[in-house]
Amino acid sequence: MGLGFIVFTEAWERFSFYGMQALLVLYMTGYLFLPEHSEKVAGFDAFRSVMHGVFGDLSPQALATQTFGIYVGLVYFAPVLGGLLGDRWLGRRQAVSLGAIFMCVGHFMMAFDVVFLAALAALIIGSGLLKGNLAAQVGDLYARDDQRRDAGFSLYNMAINVGAFLAPLACGTLGELYGWHYGFGLAGIGMALSLAIYRSGTRHLPDNRAAATDAPVAGLQPGDGRRIMAVLVILVITALYWTVQTQVWNTYPLWVQDRVMRDFGWFEMPVTWFQSLDSLAVLVLAPPVIWFWQRQAKRRTAPSDLAKIAFGCAVFAGACLMLVAGEILAGSARVAIIWPILFHFVCAIGFLYVGPVAMALTSRVAPPSVNAMMVSCYYLGIFVGGFGSGFLGRFFERMDAAYFWLLHAAVVGSGAVLLILLARPLHRAMRGQNGDAGA
């Protein structure tokens, strides 16, 4: 029963999160950050002055992509602090409930231009409180040796992808075709449903009260320092991947809007549908990829986790080259829709080889005494990647689109090269004293 409430809570939370995110850059560049509208936003002049002071002069479009990058980065940094609050002070139930309230308020505030910056702040705080603490509650439903634990997390992750798939189709279509604020309002309704489901099911969840701050903590063992450094190096390299992956929600929608042929007779495909395609590709390809890994394991031909992550980075670089090819073949005309479709399905393979594998490696290799903290540090790669995507987004207006995506292919491809070059010393470091890190 508890798992069911958590799964549906997460599905609707992701519906609201990705529904808003699918519209955010299009909303800022096509409406809010235009001079005639930005003056209505409370605190916008001060915000713009700070952004210009830190990043240099930014056009409205560059300011929008940089803002998006900072927002996404902070959304994935906040769970590090939110998890600490849930563990030490609030307890997980209260942290999730409070986070859901912040997110619900933030989504509804997005329907009003004047409180746009405050709405983003509320969403960042809410996501920080909810994200890590809700995922931790899945594990709390089962004993450590309960075989149902993996199935529970599989259903939880399925809820994430289902919510991410449906949100751009619903919120994105409504926002693009009928008005931005209608789309944001629907995201708020989704978050209100998430909060209601969670609160109605709390009696079926473990009563995770805040842990005692003076609880004994096991110290580091010989060799643990090398393991920690190895994991941190890997996470720094994965930030190159997340820089390009985050671009799928940042400048990529602007490229689709400007450059892709989306007309089908009387119907023009909304830009936000491509975000749904990104999630659909993961849902479709995850089962065959997992089957392939299991087959490799049975034949004892499975590559190491480092090799998988390097392969995923290389595949994602290949996906970016598909956008380059589409631009070159299109010339001055619009790019054929087959190229972004292929891009998303190749991206999905890259994600499956990088995202979950890097998290599993971190959890397995990090020493027990700092394991939870190191797993939280996994999200810091996405935090850095969010800022990186915003920084690269400023070049979208200045560069030819083919060169822009070629630059991104080089960024994520360099991650594959670095992992190959550092594979041997990283493997040695991860083996630690007991000789086996399982990586």
TrEMBL record:
Membrane-protein topology: Multi-pass membrane protein
Record keyword Metal-binding present: no
What's the main place this protein lives?
A: membrane
Q: Does the keyword Transcription regulation apply?
A: no
Q: Provide this UniProt record's keywords sorted from A to Z.
A: Cell membrane, Membrane, Peptide transport, Protein transport, Transmembrane, Transmembrane helix, Transport
Residue intervals passing through the bilayer: 15-34, 68-86, 98-125, 179-198, 228-244, 273-293, 305-325, 337-361, 373-396, 402-423
Q: Name one Pfam family in it.
A: PTR2
- Location of this chain's protein in the cell: Cell membrane
What SUPFAM superfamilies is this protein classified in?
MFS general substrate transporter
From the Swiss-Prot or TrEMBL record, give the protein name: Peptide MFS transporter
Q: Which organism is it from?
A: Pacificimonas aurantium
